[in-house]
C-alpha cells in the first residue's frame, strides 16, 4: 500500500467538546439546584443546625433527627393526614374525576367537549393565590359566602365559615380541581386514540355506555391510568402550595411536606429547625428518587431514545 | 478530485452496514452506487461526506487521508433525496448560504447565485421559499446549492426518486450533461438500475454492505460475474434455469429438463469446472419466437411493458419469460415456438454463485 | 368520537347536566371574582352596597389600587408588576435558551454519557422538586455570599437569596427537566438531511443549531415560551420562600399577604388585584390552548 498522508486535522479540542458547552448551562443548574440540594438535604438532616445555632455552631448528631421524627408526638397525626389526603384526592379527583370528565367530554359534541376541558384547565393556569381566594370566598361565612347563599341557607341549614369547618374537604377540593386536569388531558388523548371501529363495534353490539367504559375503554387506557396514578401520587405527596395559601396548615391540614417547610423555613416563632426540617424533607426526597427511577424503568422511556445520525 | 475508499467499514452498534468496500474513483468520473434498499449505499456516501465516521478503513481524497476531516472542510457538495432545502430561507439564501458562511462579499454572492440560477433555470424563483416550489424545482435548487461552492466532489443520494417518471428522465440527462461539462467527480447513489446504467461511467453494485462488482455498465449487463448481479441488473430480470451440462460428440449441451436440451456455442463454454450444480441465465430479450423451433409452448400471461410485451409461458415446471413486439398481437393461450440465443447465455455455479464464464 | 344519540331528551342532556354540576366550583369561582371586582361588596354572587341593598353598589372603586398604595399594603403595584414581569420574562428566556441547547445536544450529538443524561432528565422530570426547597435556601444563601453575582446586579438584584435573579434561577432550574425533554422531542423530529446539508455547506454545530435547527422548532419554542411565561407570571412558592419582603416581591405574594389580612368585607380590592393578575394569563390561554395542552401533559403523551 502506498504512503498515506493525513489531512491536517482542523478539529480543535473546542469542536470535540461542543456537546459539553451545549449542556453546560443545564448541567450547572442541575448541579446547583438538584444535586447539591439533595446532598444538602441528607447532610443537614444529620445535624442540629437551626437559626439558633446559625451556620457555624451546629453539631453533627447522626440519626437523632430521624429518631425524633419517629417519636415525635405529632408524627402520627401528620402522617395519617398525608396518607388520607393523598388517597382521597387521588381516587376522587386526580384519577376519578379526570376519568369522568374525559369520558363525558369525549362522548358529547366536539365543541362542547373542548369547552369543558378548557374550563377544567383554568384552575391549573390560574395563579394559586387567586384560585385559593376563590375557594375561600365560596366557603366564606354568611352573608358573603357563595355556598352558604346558594345551598346551605335555602336548604335550611345553619351557615358557617366552611374552610375551618370542613378543612379536610377543602384541601381535597382545592387540590383535586387542579389535579384532575392532568389526568383529563392524558385520558382524553388515550380515549381518542382508541381505534374507531372498536368503539363503533361496541355500539353495534348494543353495549350500554357503562358496559362500553368497562369492557372497551378501560382496558385500552390501562397504561395511562397507571401512569397518572403513580405520577400524581408523588406529586400530591410532596406539593403543599395550595394548602399553604388556603389554611397555612391550620385546622389540622398540616401535611408532611408542609410540616417540613414550616419547620425549616417558615414559622411563626422564627426558629428555623433546618436539621429537623431537612430530615422531614429527606424522607420525601428519598421516596421521590426511588419512585422516579422505578417509573423510568417501568414506563420504558428509555426506548424512545434514538441514536444520533451525525457523527462529526 | 480523485477519491479512494480502502477497506471502508461501518458498524452500527455491532451491526455491519458497510463491509470492507474498496473503490477508487478517477478525477472527473461519474460513479453510481447501485443496490437494493438497506444495502449500505447511503451509509457509504455519508462516510465520504464526513457525516459518519468509518469504523475501519480509509477515505482518501487525492491521496490524502480525510477520515477525520469535518464535512465543511471536504470541499464537497451533496444533493439529498428529500432535497433538504432550508425551509425558512428563500431560494436565494439557500443558494448562497455556503458562500455567506465563508464571508464572501455580497456582489460575489449575487453573481454566483445568478450564474448557478442560469445553469439550473431557476432565476425566476429566487425570492420564493422552498415550500412554494414543486418537487422538480426544489431539486434544481438543491443541485444549485451544491454547485455554487464549485465543489471538487459531488454526492447524490437518490436525488430523483421523489420526482415523477417523466421529470426523472429529463433530469437524468440534465444532471449527466452538467456533470460532463463541469467535470466534477461525482458519486451517485440509486436503487434504480436504469438511472445507474444510463448515467454512470462505472457502477458499484453493493449487496448487504459488500461490494459485488465495480465496473462499466455494459460489462455488468453483458458479463455479470455473480449470480446476484445477473439477477439484479437488467429489466425485466434474467431467466435462470437449473441445468445439467452434458458433453456429447465434442459438443456441449445444457439440459434444462422437460426435454429441453440446448447446444452451447464454443464462445460460451464454461471455463471453470463447477463445484456444485449449474444455473443458466438468459435475458428475456435474448429469447425469440421461431415457429420452426422444436421448443413449443403456450402463452400463460402477457404483460405490456411499453415498447415490448413481456410474455410468460411454461414448459413443464420451467417458467420462461421473454419479450416480443406488441405488433405480433399474441394472445393468451397461443402456441409459439421459442429459440434461445445461446451466444448470450450465462452460466453460474450455484454453490459459489460465481460466473463460470467471467472471472 | 361519536356522540351518544338517544331519543330521550333527558338522557341526551344528562352528560351536560353532569358536567355543569361537576364544574360548578370553577364556574362559581370565576363568576365571583368577576362580580366582586366591580361591586362594593358581595353577598354570595349578588353585589350589594354599604347598606346591604341587593343589586346595588356596582363600582369601579376597587381598581383604585392602581394609583392608591394604601389599598395594597403600601406596596407599589407597578413595582410588583414589573418584578412579576421580570421573573416571567427571565424564566421564559432562561428556560427556552438553556433547554434548546441541552435538547439539541441530547437529540443530535453523539457524546459519552448521552443515555445517562437523558435518563437523568427523565428522573428529574418526575422528581418532586418542591421537596428540595429547604436545601435550595442554603444554595441561595451561598450564592448570595459570592461577590457581584450574589447581590450586585442591577434590575434583578443578583442571583442569591432575596433577589429576583435568585428566584428566576431557581425557577429555571425546576422547569428545566420538562423544557429539555420537550425541546429534545421537537429536535428529534427535524430531518437529519437538513442538518447534514448545513454541515456540508460549512456550518459548525453551533451555527447549525442557531441558524438551521432552531428555526425549525418554532412551534415548540412558542409552546415552551408561553408555558414558562405563565408559570413565571403566576409563580408564588419560590418568591414567597426566597424573597424576604412579601409586599416587595411579586403580585402573587402581595395577594397572599392581603388575603391573610383581609376580612371578607373587603374582598373587592383583592378580587380586582386578582383579576388584574389573571387577565394576561387568560388572554394568553384563550389564544394558545392548543400549544399548551401538549405541555400540561408534561410532554409525556404517547409514552405509556
Ligand atoms: N444511523 C444508523 N444507525 C443504525 N443503523 C443504521 C444507521 N444508518 C443506517 N443503518 C442501517 O445500515 C443499513 C444500511 O443503511 P443505508 O441507509 O446505508 O441503506 P441504503 O442502501 O441507503 O438503503 P435505501 O436505498 O433504502 O436508502 C441498514 O440496515 C440500516 O438500517
Ligand atoms: Mg439510502
CATH class of the largest domain in chain B: Alpha Beta
Q: Describe the oligomeric state of these chains in a short phrase.
A: heterotrimer
CATH class of the largest domain in chain A: Mainly Alpha
CATH homology group of the largest domain in chain B: P-loop containing nucleotide triphosphate hydrolases
Radius of gyration of chain B: 25 Å
User: What's the end-to-end separation of chain B, in Å?
Assistant: 30 Å
**Strand residue content of chain B:** 25-35%
The name of the CATH topology of the largest domain in chain B is: Rossmann fold
* Average residue-wise pLDDT of chain B: 91
CATH architecture of the largest domain in chain B: 3-Layer(aba) Sandwich
> Which bin fits the share of residues in helices of chain A?
55-70%
Domain count of chain A: 2
Q: Based on the structure given, which CATH architecture of the largest domain in chain A is correct?
A: Orthogonal Bundle
List SSEs of chain A in N-to-C order: EHHHHHHHHHHHHHHH
> Tell me, what's the shape of chain B?
elongated
**Proportion of residues in β-strands of chain A:** under 5%
Tally the helices of chain B: what do you get?
A: 8
* Major β-sheet strand ordering of chain B: 6-7-8-3-9-10
Q: Give the low-pLDDT segments of chain B.
A: none
Amino acid at each position: 500500500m502506498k504512503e498515506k498522508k493525513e489531512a491536517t486535522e482542523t478539529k480543535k479540542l473546542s469542536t470535540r467538546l461542543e456537546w459539553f458547552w451545549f449542556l453546560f448551562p443545564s448541567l450547572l443548574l442541575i448541579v446547583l439546584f438538584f444535586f447539591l440540594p439533595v446532598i444538602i438535604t441528607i447532610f443537614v438532616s444529620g445535624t442540629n443546625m437551626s437559626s439558633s445555632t446559625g451556620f457555624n455552631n451546629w453539631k453533627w448528631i447522626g440519626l437523632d433527627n430521624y429518631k425524633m421524627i419517629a417519636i415525635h408526638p405529632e408524627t402520627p397525626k401528620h402522617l395519617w393526614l398525608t396518607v388520607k389526603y393523598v388517597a382521597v384526592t387521588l381516587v376522587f379527583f386526580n384519577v376519578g374525576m379526570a376519568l369522568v370528565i374525559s369520558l363525558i367530554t369525549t362522548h358529547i359534541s366536539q365543541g362542547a367537549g373542548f369547552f369543558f376541558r378548557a374550563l377544567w384547565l383554568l384552575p391549573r393556569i390560574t395563579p394559586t393565590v387567586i384560585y385559593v381566594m376563590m375557594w375561600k370566598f365560596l366557603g366564606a361565612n354568611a352573608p358573603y359566602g357563595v355556598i352558604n347563599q346558594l345551598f346551605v341557607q335555602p336548604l335550611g341549614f345553619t351557615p358557617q365559615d366552611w374552610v375551618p369547618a370542613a378543612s379536610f374537604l377543602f384541601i381535597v377540593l382545592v387540590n383535586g380541581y387542579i389535579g384532575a386536569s392532568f389526568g383529563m388531558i392524558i385520558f382524553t388523548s388515550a380515549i381518542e386514540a382508541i381505534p374507531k371501529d372498536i368503539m363503533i363495534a361496541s355500539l353495534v353490539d348494543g353495549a350500554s355506555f357503562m358496559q362500553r367504559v368497562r369492557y372497551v375503554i378501560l382496558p385500552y387506557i390501562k397504561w395511562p391510568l397507571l401512569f397518572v396514578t403513580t405520577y400524581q401520587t408523588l406529586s400530591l405527596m410532596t406539593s403543599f402550595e395550595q394548602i399553604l395559601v388556603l389554611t397555612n396548615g391550620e385546622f389540622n391540614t398540616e401535611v408532611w411536606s408542609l410540616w417540613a417547610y414550616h419547620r425549616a423555613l417558615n414559622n411563626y416563632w422564627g426558629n428555623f429547625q433546618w436539621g429537623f426540617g431537612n430530615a422531614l424533607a429527606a424522607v420525601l426526597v428519598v421516596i421521590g428518587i426511588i419512585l422516579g427511577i422505578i417509573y423510568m424503568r417501568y414506563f420504558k422511556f428509555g426506548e424512545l431514545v434514538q441514536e444520533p445520525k451525525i457523527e462529526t | 478530485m480523485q477519491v479512494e475508499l480502502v477497506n471502508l467499514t461501518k458498524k452500527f452498534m455491532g451491526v455491519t452496514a458497510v463491509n470492507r468496500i474498496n473503490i477508487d474513483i478517477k478525477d472527473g468520473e461519474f460513479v453510481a452506487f447501485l443496490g437494493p434498499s438497506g444495502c449500505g449505499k447511503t451509509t457509504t456516501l455519508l462516510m465520504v461526506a464526513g457525516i459518519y465516521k468509518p469504523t475501519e478503513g480509509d477515505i482518501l481524497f487525492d491521496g490524502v487521508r480525510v477520515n477525520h476531516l469535518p464535512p465543511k472542510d471536504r470541499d464537497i457538495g451533496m444533493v439529498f433525496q428529500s432535497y433538504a432545502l432550508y425551509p425558512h430561507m428563500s431560494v436565494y439564501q439557500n443558494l448562497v448560504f455556503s458562500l455567506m458562511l465563508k464571508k464572501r462579499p455580497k456582489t460575489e454572492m449575487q453573481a454566483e447565485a445568478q450564474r448557478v440560477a442560469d445553469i439550473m433555470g431557476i432565476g425566476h424563483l429566487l425570492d420564493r421559499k422552498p415550500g412554494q416550489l414543486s418537487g422538480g424545482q426544489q431539486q434544481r435548487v438543491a443541485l444549485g446549492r451544491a454547485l455554487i461552492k464549485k465543489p471538487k466532489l459531488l454526492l447524490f443520494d437518490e436525488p430523483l426518486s421523489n420526482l415523477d417518471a417523466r421529470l426523472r428522465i429529463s433530469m437524468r440527462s440534465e444532471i449527466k450533461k452538467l456533470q460532463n461539462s463541469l467535470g466534477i467527480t461525482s458519486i451517485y447513489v440509486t436503487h434504480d438500475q436504469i438511472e445507474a446504467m444510463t448515467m454512470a461511467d462505472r457502477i458499484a453494485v453493493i449487496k448487504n454492505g459488500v461490494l459485488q462488482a465495480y465496473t462499466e455498465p455494459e460489462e455488468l449487463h453483458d458479463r455479470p460475474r455473480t449470480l446476484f448481479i445477473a439477477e439484479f441488473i437488467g429489466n425485466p430480470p434474467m431467466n435462470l434455469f437449473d441445468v445439467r451440462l452434458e458433453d456429447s460428440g465434442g459438443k456441449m449441451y445444457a439440459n434444462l429438463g422437460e426435454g429441453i436440451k440446448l447446444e452451447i456455442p464454443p464462445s460460451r463454454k464454461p471455463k471453470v469446472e463447477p463445484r456444485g450444480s449449474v444455473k443458466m441465465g438468459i435475458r428475456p430479450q435474448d429469447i425469440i419466437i421461431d415457429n420452426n423451433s422444436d421448443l413449443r409452448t403456450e402463452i400463460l400471461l402477457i404483460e405490456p411493458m411499453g415498447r415490448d410485451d413481456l410474455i410468460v409461458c411454461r414448459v413443464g415446471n420451467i417458467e420462461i419469460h421473454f419479450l416480443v413486439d406488441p405488433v405480433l398481437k399474441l394472445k393468451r393461450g397461443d402456441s409459439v415456438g421459442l429459440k434461445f440465443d445461446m451466444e448470450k447465455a450465462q452460466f453460474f455455479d450455484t454453490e459459489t454463485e460465481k460466473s463460470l464464464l467471467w472471472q | 368520537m361519536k356522540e351518544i344519540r338517544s331519543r330521550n331528551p333527558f338522557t341526551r342532556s344528562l352528560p351536560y347536566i353532569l358536567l355543569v354540576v361537576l364544574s360548578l366550583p370553577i364556574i362559581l369561582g370565576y363568576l365571583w371574582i368577576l362580580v366582586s371586582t366591580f361591586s362594593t361588596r358581595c353577598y354570595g354572587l349578588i353585589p350589594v352596597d354599604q347598606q346591604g341593598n341587593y343589586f346595588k353598589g356596582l363600582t369601579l372603586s376597587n381598581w383604585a389600587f392602581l394609583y392608591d398604595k394604601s389599598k395594597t399594603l403600601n406596596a407599589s403595584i407597578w413595582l410588583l408588576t414589573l418584578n412579576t414581569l421580570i421573573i416571567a420574562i427571565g424564566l421564559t428566556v432562561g428556560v427556552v435558551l438553556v433547554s434548546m441547547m441541552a435538547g439539541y445536544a441530547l437529540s443530535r450529538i453523539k457524546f459519552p454519557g448521552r443515555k445517562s443524561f437523558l435518563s437523568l432528565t427523565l428522573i428529574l422530570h418526575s422528581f418532586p422538586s418542591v421537596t428540595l426547597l429547604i436545601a435550595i435556601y442554603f444554595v441561595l444563601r451561598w450564592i448570595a455570599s459570592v461577590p457581584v453575582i450574589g447581590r450586585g446586579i442591577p434590575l434583578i438584584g443578583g442571583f442569591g437569596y432575596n433577589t429576583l435573579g435568585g428566584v428566576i434561577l431557581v425557577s429555571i432550574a425546576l422547569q428545566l427537566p420538562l423544557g429539555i425533554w420537550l425541546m429534545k422531542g421537537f429536535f428529534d423530529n427535524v430531518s437529519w438531511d437538513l442538518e447534514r446539508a448545513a454541515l456540508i455547506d460549512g456550518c459548525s454545530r453551533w451555527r447549525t443549531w442557531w441558524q438551521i435547527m432552531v428555526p425549525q422548532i418554532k412551534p415548540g419554542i412558542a409552546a415552551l415560551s408561553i408555558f414558562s411565561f405563565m408559570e413565571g407570571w403566576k409563580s408564588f412558592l419560590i418568591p414567597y420562600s426566597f424573597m424576604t419582603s412579601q409586599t416587595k416581591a411579586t403580585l402573587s405574594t402581595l395577594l397572599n399577604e392581603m388575603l391573610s389580612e383581609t376580612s371578607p368585607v373587603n374582598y373587592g380590592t383583592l378580587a380586582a388585584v386578582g383579576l388584574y393578575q389573571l387577565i394576561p394569563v387568560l388572554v394568553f390561554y384563550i389564544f394558545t390552548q392548543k400549544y399548551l395542552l401538549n405541555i400540561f401533559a408534561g410532554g409525556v403523551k404517547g409514552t405509556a
